[in-house]
Design goal:
By secondary structure, this protein is an alpha/beta fold. It contains twelve helices and twelve strands. It has a domain of 235 residues: Rossmann fold (3-Layer(aba) Sandwich), CATH 3.40.50.720.
Length: 351
Amino acid sequence: MPTWLVTGGAGFIGGNFVLDAVASGVRIINLDALTYAGNLDTLASLEGNPGHLFAKGDIGDRALVAALLAEHRPDAVVNFAAESHVDRSIDGPAAFVQTNVVGTLGLLECVRDYWKALEGASRDGFRFLHVSTDEVYGSLGDTGKFTETTPYAPNSPYSASKAASDHLVRAFHHTYGLPVLTTNCSNNYGPYQFPEKLIPLIIAKALAGEPLPVYGDGRNVRDWLYVGDHCSAIRAVLERGRPGETYNVGGEAERENITVVKTICALLDQRRPLADGRARESLIAYVKDRPGHDRRYAIDASKLHGELGWAPSMTFEQGIARTVDWYLDHQPWVNRVLDGSYRLERIGDAA
């Protein structure tokens, strides 16, 4: 049974990854600081499972990280831990630098020292996989896609902090030989996503019959990636990727934000019609755009397809329907997440 140390494993993508990995027979040591977006409810099904050990703590706590590495001797470290919401980074960039840059540096130094002490097959097979974002590349025009060689041009404090962490990971490979892998993914969606992000936010407000805020003209484009497909891509990179390489992960599902919102409206109208019979599209309210809002992202994932044989299994239409159904079936989870620290209010308007 392989053992992996997963950081940020109580968050949205990390939690889905942990659930999938444990189900497939991997022993997971799960380190998470349980900030506002970390939620142990996501991992409730693993309570009492010997394949999952949870440790509360920060990736910047070097003594804790070193102790976990020494005690559990993982075969790999998968780093999801990050402050991840653009709007929050606009209001408070310092926390993003602290976690995403300083924290990642501390984690890398601990992992480097652990790896250097390994011997033989354990040393040869060890991997450090860093999960990052396509936002480090900046904004595209109407055509073209991000590749692994696209120059970095981050436009928000969040993406700048992730770009810095990516560079640190690369430097630890080239300077120290640490066998690292980096994935840069497009916009994720699916079960257990914190409801400040577009899709769960719109679902929650549409269910309540509240106005549905859409930034600017709603025509910003994102490549939408179902979280289960992202998890399978990370597994493929971890198991078969070449150390030192970066792999872009995309869902082959470019959609304008307004199209995503209207799709959710239609699905909810079918499943939970409003009592007054209104179509939920009538609730759409265009609001002042986010400062520095990137216009378009699109991922070229051909390297991942060609080298590792990975492709998304879920179309956007399948994934968004499954996501809406999950939120409808898990309203108690949503209600426990909205414990008073976040009430679906607008954030990220500090500029």
